[in-house]
Write a structure and sequence with these properties.
With 384 residues, the chain is of the alpha+beta class. It contains 6 helices and 15 strands.
């Protein structure tokens, strides 16, 4: 425990002290003791009054700061300690373990509550409803603001609060009073709090809107910076069930890919029929050859124009008797003249006017090459 070296002089039982009634009328109180021998009772009275004040200051330093008040004959140690006492006197920490019921004990606290007295305290809990304060066991008193009894959140845990006793309650001096929130249709000279503005108006920059904001529906085709409602987007967009071709790997937002006929190598055909058919055909559009090998049967029809046929050469068989060289015989012998002689030139077969046909085959595709049309991989999607 801190020690106070400053003691009260002549405060023992039966001390030689001039009575207070005599001291009040004693002329020396105003003029001081005259030259000569001072009366002991008067001297003790003066010394006790002076030592009482000194002891009081020393005891405050010792009790509040928990440091020794030493009698060293200087002010070096006592002056900063006494200044600290003056700055901290009336301060205490709420020691309650129950929310909304504060209990504070001041060192060298008051013996009774006095109207106008001020204390500083730090609540142990943030209040959730009305609050009471019991100072040094002098009785629980309601804590209020200028607006009335607390409702919750006025006293924050760990924050300093100045309270003044008004004779019946403790009033929070540093509490910022609030105004009643008015309706958005109220147009008057009433005080409007911040909550009134925040509840009814959105900021200009990036407002965080709540609920379902509405706006006028613009006409289809409008291209401005005005707000577009859902109705505008739907009327200007594709109706549900619309099917389109997309040049991308997946369906965009709001669409569903249709894979009912997703085979590769399809071609788009314009349907001129009144009956719509989604798909058709069985063959791939890829051609293996430019002109595949095939056979044509040709009918010429009636031919009456004069024309010629060219004979590239032929042979005749003729009879002769005996060998061509040597002795002749009695019986004829047939010989092929072409075996020794071939016809040269051609024969004019004359005019041909009889109906006839020609037939033939193409080559076996000696000039074939693969032929694949250029195409894009696409997907078909349906609007949700």
């Amino acid at each position: 425990m801190a020690v106070n070296d400053f003691l009260i002089y002549s405060n023992g039982l039966g001390a030689n002290i001039e009575p207070q009634s005599t001291y009040i009328t004693d002329p020396t109180v105003a003029t001081g003791v005259e030259s000569g021998i001072a009366l002991s009772a008067l001297s003790n009275k003066v010394w006790r009054q002076g030592s009482t004040g000194t002891a009081l200051i020393g005891q405050l330093i010792s009790d509040i700061l928990s440091v020794d008040a030493t009698d060293d004959g200087t002010l070096t140690y006592h002056l900063p300690n006494f200044a600290t006492v003056l700055r901290t006197i009336g301060y205490a920490q709420d020691t309650s373990t129950i929310a909304n019921v504060m209990a504070v004990t001041l060192t060298d606290g008051p013996l009774a509550l006095q109207t106008g007295m001020v204390i500083n305290l730090i609540p142990a809990f943030t209040n959730t409803t009305s609050v009471t304060l019991n100072l040094n066991g002098l009785g629980a008193k309601q804590v209020v603001t200028n607006a009335g009894i607390l409702t919750g959140g006025e006293l924050l845990s760990g924050t300093s609060n100045a309270l003044m006793y008004n004779g019946t309650s403790w009033v929070i001096l540093n509490y910022q009073t609030t105004c009643t929130t008015q309706s958005s249709s109220d147009s008057s000279t009433k005080l409007a709090n911040t909550q009134f503005i925040q509840l009814n108006y959105a900021p200009l920059i990036s407002p965080a809107l709540t609920g379902i904001p509405t706006a006028p529906t613009a006409a289809p085709g409008t291209s401005t910076t005005q707000l577009a409602t859902t109705a505008f987007a739907q009327s200007a967009g594709f109706p549900s069930g619309t099917r389109l071709i997309f040049d991308q790997p997946s369906a965009p937002a709001g669409w569903t890919r249709d894979i009912s006929d997703r085979a590769n190598n399809r071609m788009i055909v314009l349907n001129s029929s009144t009956t719509f058919t989604a798909t058709g055909g069985t063959n791939s559009p890829i051609l293996n050859n430019v002109v595949p090998a095939h056979t044509h049967n040709i009918t010429t029809g009636s031919e009456s124009a004069q024309h010629t046929h060219v004979d590239a050469g032929h042979t005749h068989t003729v009879p002769y008797f005996g060998a061509l060289t040597g002795t002749a015989g009695a019986n004829p012998i047939w010989a092929n003249v072409s075996s020794t002689t071939s016809a040269i030139g051609h024969a004019n077969l004359g005019t041909e006017s009889v109906d006839h046909t020609h037939s033939g085959t193409t080559d076996a595709g000696s000039s074939q090459q693969n032929w694949t049309p250029r195409y894009l991989y696409t997907i078909v999607c349906q609007k949700n």
